[in-house]
Amino acid sequence: MLRRHFLGTCAGSALGMLTASSRGEAMLAPARLVSDVDAGEIPFKLSVMLWTVFRQLPFARRLEEVVEAGYHAVELVDEFEHWTKSDFAAARAKKQELGIQFDGTAGVWHSLADPADRDAFLKAIPSFLPTMRELECDRLILQTGNKVAGMTPDQMRSACIETLKRAGEIAAQNQIELLIENIDPEENPDYFLTSSAEGFEIVRAVGNPHLKFLYDLFHEQIAGGNLLAKLEKNAGLIGLIHIADVPGRHEPGTGEINFQNVYRKLAAIGYSQYVAMEFEPKGDAVAALRAARETVLKYGKIQSPPIAHTH
Fold first, then answer.
1. H/E/C letters for each residue in 119-166?
2. Handedness of CA 91, 212, 203, 199 (dihedral sign)
3. Selected residue with higher pLDDT from 22 and 277
4. Which of 47, 163, 203, 221 has minimal Cβ neighbours within 10 Å of its Cβ?
5. Residue 176 dihedral angles phi and psi, to the nearest 5°
6. Contact indicator for 281, 289 with CB cutoff of 8 Å
7. How many CB atoms lie within 10 A of CB 116?
8. List of E strands, 171-266
9. Beta strands at 177-181 and 274-277: parallel, antiparallel or unpaired
10. Angle formed by the axes of helices 153-174 and 196-206, to 10°?
11. What span, in angstroms and rounded, lies between the C-alpha atoms of 139 and 65?
């Protein structure tokens, strides 16, 4: 199921009056938060893809719940689609109050694989830049779009590369980062980029440091597996990792992925970008996010080399 299908309750007046927590807890007071990286606990940063949690709450309360769970960043899809200038200002104020970041957002939905959509795509990025500035966000999540009738896989791959080369120039001029993502064929059998291996090759072919790959472990486990080897082989091309277990897209520990080994590998290869929870909790969302974060902090630490003993 695609993320943006869930967002009907998130837009418009979502920045309304703050309410008490759904568990009856008191309003959160402003807090000074230190990131996991700054705290020296893990080498990478943690975030939450917001479409998955607290969808029934106003936007400001959703941010509070994320902070309550121990996170300092969120990623957006199109929760802001109907916001006014004052809504953006309120979101920035709340973000600053809580000490969190908007570390990534979607918002440009044109196809990369379809050459006929290239001009519209390349116009859409500059048009979306003012929204990114309103959000104080410099990373744009992109999808390749569906397969194009009458085109071979090689032709669609070449179209993605050509479009992204030109988009990368726009990104470099505006100091933003582009992230492309694969989707597994069970979720969308019509989607072009179902393989992370092919996604990494597209990023390599473009050769622009402003383009990275969004390595979604949920999608890749379904599509291809072999998650750890791909992490190690392509570490320098990864700009973002998304976390959810298989099957069901629920929290780590509910399915077949060994996330303890994933976090160990991320620490071992020196990954330093964001790891975002993009799971739908089976129970209480704050509790699930807290447990997921605790697992990261336990297994994602850089291991000190053993002390050499002299005799």
1. HHHHHHHHHHHHHHHHHCCCEEEEECCECCCCCCHHHHHHHHHHHHHH
2. negative
3. 277
4. 221
5. -120, 165
6. yes
7. 9
8. 177-181, 211-216, 238-243
9. unpaired
10. 50
11. 23
